[in-house]
Amino acid sequence: MMTHDAATAAFELRGLRREFGDKLAVDDVNLRVPPGSFYGLVGPNGAGKTTALSMAVGLLRPSAGTAYVDGIDVWDDPVEAKRHLGVLPDGLALPERLTGGELLTYWGRFRGMERATVAARTAELLRVLELEEAERLGTLVGEYSTGMRKKIGLATALLHTPSVLVLDEPYEAVDPVSARVLTGILRRFTAAGGSIVLSSHVMPLVEQLCDRVAIIADGRVVADGTLDEVRAGSTLDDRFVELVGSADLQEGDLTWIGS
Amino acid sequence: MDRLLISLKFTMLRHSSLGLRGIGWVLGALFVVATWTAAVLAAPEARHDVLTLAFALWAAGAALGPVLLSGRSVLQPGYFALLPLRSAEVGRGLLMSVFVSIASGFVLLAFAAALVPAFLGGPGAVLVALVGAPLTWVLAITASRLVFGLLGAAMRSKVGVEIAAIQFGLMFAGMFTGWMIVQVVVESVPRLLTVGIPAPALTAVLDALPTSWVVLAVEAAASGDLLGALAPLGALVLLDGVLLAITIPLLAPRPTAAARSRRARPRSVGWVAGGGLLPATPTGAVIAKELRQWWRDPWRALELRTGVWTGLTIGLIALISGTYSPLSAFAGLIVAFMLGLSACNLYGQDGSAVWQTIVGENDGSVRADVRGRQWAAVLLFLPQALLLSAIFVALSGQWWTIPVLAAALPATIGAASGAAILTSAVGVSPGVDPRLRVGPNDANGNIGLHVWVVILLITIGVAPTGAAIAATVIWPSTASVVLAVIVGVLNGVGAAWFLGSLAIGYLQGRMPDVYSRIRYARIFREKSEGILGSIENATLLGEQKLAEQKKKEREERIKAAAR
Asked: Which chain A residue lies closest to B295 (C-alpha atoms)?
């Protein structure tokens, strides 16, 4: 495993670009995630966050550009790069007819991990993420709530001890209690030297968690840097609206509600 | 309210593709024409039997059709759960919306064939037919909804899956043994039209069916028997009322629908602890996952059960046909063959879950995935093929088929597992993404071509065994029989290994494209060359044409709206 030094970014998106027919979904996206940092990716719906991350983790072929994990090219040496990468995609299916425990057991063994290690980590992850009750009842992943799906997804991303986590909307529909657990796990991960890229719509969450932020709109990075650089003295929310634009409610709109 | 629901339904249908519905309309129109033609052409003494049989078949078709063709009713009761309406009102509206459809129109037209004997019987008989035909129509459509409702949206229960599997099994068996059935029909139609049904027991049962009452009423009216005409009509009115009373509450939204039934006992503690019979290797992990998916996923289970029911039905048809009854001993072989068709779109069926195989890529991951899927399919289909073989060999008494089966079964199941995984890899055809599936046809996209590729691959794949079995006929001896069995086993292992290797070689480095096909319905790379490449392109084209057609329909609607 490569050592982290200042010169090598933990995760880097270089010139990523993707067209769908005539539509340019991601336009020359560059991002540098230093080791140990907690990186927030924010942008409106359809801005290209998921598309950019899909290309960066090896799911979607880029039209141009590539991504590096600990200096390893994701598209040139996928096997080595993916060893370092833990991924939580948004809105994708899982083997829906397994229980959470069965899914983690399958996943660990599929990745060639030791039987005993898989068993121990599976039990621990289910306990910490409060999925034990569902496991005891034999609840299938397909019957999980959205929040539970996020949690089991995070467990699959963590199971093989990656050094970089790429999480697409990890807090969506997660209840406040579980969110604290999630935050605790992620903070421990960065404290131990790991790096996280997280996409979200929720500005206060990003402000609270991340030390670096990038704002994406229309497939381009419109601002990036440390949280303070991007906020530029204002709040992230205001800065975001300023850069992306907004449709404010006008005086004469919807006067009939509540009447 | 009822009018609103009907217009909502047509609005939603305009946004769905024509596809199967189009085929259904053409078939429906043909059946209506056939019904009227038969009614007109039938000899006077046979007309009664022809009509009662045709009406019974129409009612059966109306009951089974929705499950086979559409699966999902367009308007779901859940849509209206939050509206301030009494649930009986919604139920009635939903039922009314079923009556107003093309298919239901065909059913009405078919029952109107009761007018044929009525015209010959005078104005009174015509009046009776004009009242009786719509009453029979209400009966058939309401019963159809009742059956559909009782299936509990078929795919939500084990029993529902089994019923759907029986229907698909019957359909496949009908396609495979079509020549047997066609022969029987061709022989019997002229006889039916001239002398009717020769078995009195059968005609008695037919006459008792409510769908036949309109015919009885018309006949009574024609002969001037007023009471005999009114009694069946009255009974129809009564039965319609009872059916409507049962069906409307069934269709209404229920507040408790969200409560899911839970299994009584936990099922995975042993596995979580890391135990289990399968090897703790990547391939073992895939086998375990696949076995569970086959057992627990209603759509996979449907494929599996359909294979068994197809074999069973073909065996039974052959067994009772007389002429072909020795062939029934090969029913188990059909199950082995059905593995190929059932598993010909595994990656497409898994939908976007394939991301895991890509993100978890390592040196042996593609091999483990392909081999694991092959093993799981064989482990599930082989025992059922063996069981069915044992049953039908015993029933038919064709003991000589045992060595033939011992050679043919391993060869077929091996070739089928290889053909299936290769076709799955090259022709990824996603249906509805797993969590959104409702109807029995939701799991696959367009697999018309896949079926033929699989059939071709299996046929070529088992050729050596075919030759070895032929040799036992030309040179009958113990040695040639033993040799055939050895060839069969080696053939099966070899075909599974070789076709699986082709799949592994093809998928190596192409997993992101499998994902692209599922998520974006296209491939972001140069087109592939060679035979596999052309199958890849052809199946992808099939998907894209479907998407293109939908897009065009949408654009035309936008244009029409702008005008």
From this structure: A97
